[in-house]
Amino acid sequence: MAKRVGVDKWLFCATLILVVIGLLMVFSASAVMAKERFGSPYNFVVRQAIFAAIGLAIMTLLMQIDYRKYNRPNVVFPVVGITIILLLAAFLMRDSHGAHRWLKFGALSFQPSEIAKPALVLFLAWWLQGRMHTIEDIRGTILPAALPSLIFIALILEEPDLGTAMVCAGVTALMLYLAGMNFKYLGYAALAATPVLYFKLFHVKWRRERVLAFLNPESDPLGKGFHIIQSLIAVGTGGLHGLGYMEGRQKLFYLPEPHTDYIFANISEELGLLGAIIVVGLFIFVGYRGMRAAVLSKDPFARFLAFGLTATVLIQAFFNISVVLALVPTKGITLPFISYGGTSLFIMLACVGVLLNITREVD
Question: Among residues 8, 70, 125, 221, which is most buried (max CB within 10 A)?
Answer without folding.
Answer: 125
